[in-house]
Structure formats: structure tokens, C-alpha cells
Amino acid sequence: MQKGADMRAALRAIFDPDCAVPDLTMEDHRMLIARVASHHDRDAFQSLFLHFGPRVKSVMVKAGADPDLAEDLVQDVMMTVWRKAGLYAPERGAVSTWVYTIARNARVDRLRRASSQPYRDLEGLDLASEDADGEDEAFASQRAEHVAKVLDELPDEQRRIIEYAFIHDMAQSEIAAKLDLPLGTVKSRMRLAYMKLKGKLEVLK
Predict the structure, then answer these.
(1) For residues 127 and 12, what is the distance between their CA atoms, to the nearest angstrom?
(2) What sign has the CA pseudo-torsion 161, 166, 171, 177?
(3) Range of the domain at 72
């Protein structure tokens, strides 16, 4: 499979509305991921991308990402599926569960990488690297599951403020304008959200 810009261009092409979206079963998922893992089968990968790409994008948008960022995250997720197909273990769950775990990893990793002072404690959320495998991959997935759950437990407005700040890299004044809230309200709710995150994420350190 192509790498870098060439691969991203190929993935974008799959969003072509003229492409038929396959209706896949769980058994189809397992067969296709096995073909990608064993032979780097591009046709199998395209079928998986067409099936999961729109679903992952929808999840990202519902989580607060704008469409462009959501599509970028979809590409990151599916590139990881391509690279790590051999790490999928059927006994641990369905292919869809594995793909959505990768998606949560990508979402939380974007949050972690974008974080800065005074939220540097979030930088301790070391998720799966490209070289992770075996138990490391499983443990990283468990951590990502916990982080995603904690984020989702925040009140909707606090979660949106955190994601606008760290995923979209928006200034507090921009968030205030986006949500039509006073700047002081954004600051106070960000502090509240951060304190909740810090307390619940201590177990990951």
C-alpha cells in the first residue's frame, strides 16, 4: 500500500460518492482483515474502509469534531488498521470492536498531543505507538477505553469545551464565541472539566 501523501490521496478517493458501500457481516469483517493481514490485500482493505470509514467519521462528528478533522481522523484510523491488521485477535472480540477501539485511541491521542500548560498532566496518557504489539497493544487499548469513558462522562458542554480546546486547538475566546458563552464561563467550566479528568485519570499513571 502507498505511504504518506500517496496513501492519504488513495484513502480520500474512497470517499467518492460513486463508490458502492458494501453490506458486510461480522464473518466478512474477519475474512477481510485476515486478507489484509496475510497478503496486504488492497481490495479487502478498500471494502473495510468503505464499510467502517463513514461510521467512524459519524462517531467523530458526534464527539464534537468538525467534518474535516473527522475525515482526517478516519484516515489515521484506517491507516492503523492497514498497518496493524496482523495484531487483530478474533478471540478478543469482533473486528468492529477493534476498529472502534483504534478510533478512540486516535481521538484521545489527538487530545493528548494537543494538550499544553496548564493541562500538562494529560500528556501522561501514553497510548499505543505504531510499534506496539501483543500485551502492550491490549494494555494501551484498555487505557484508551478508560480515557474515552471519562471524557464521555463529562457534562456535554464541558466535554465540548475540552475537545474544542485540545482537539481543535481553539483559544478560550474562540470557544466562547463558538458556544455563545461568556469567556469567564468557558474558563470556569474548563477548570471544572480538567479537575474531573485529572482525578479520574490518575489511575493511568
Answers:
(1) 26
(2) negative
(3) 4-204
What span, in angstroms and rounded, lies between the C-alpha atoms of 44 and 26?
14
Question: Mind listing the pLDDT tens digit for each residue in 85-121?
Answer: 999 999 888 999 899 889 888 887 776 665 443 444 4
Query: Alpha-carbon distance 69 to 75, whole Å?
Result: 10
Residue 102 — φ and ψ, nearest 5°? -60, -40
pLDDT tens string 30-72:
999 999 999 999 989 989 998 898 888 888 887 777 788 888 8
The tally of domains found in the chain comes to: 1
Q: Give the whole-angstrom CA distance, residue 29 versus residue 20.
A: 17
Rounded CA separation 197/191 (Å) = 10
Q: Is the pLDDT of residue 137 over 50?
A: no
Query: How far is it, in rounded angstroms, from Cα 100 to Cα 29?
Result: 13
Torsion of CA 125, 127, 132, 134, to 10 degrees: 90
CATH code, 154: 1.10.10.10
Q: What is the pLDDT of residue 18?
A: 52
Task: Tell me the C-alpha distance between 154 and 90, whole Å.
Answer: 32
| Structure confidence by residue, pLDDT tens digits, 26-35 | 899 999 999 9
70, 57 contact by CB (below 8 A): yes
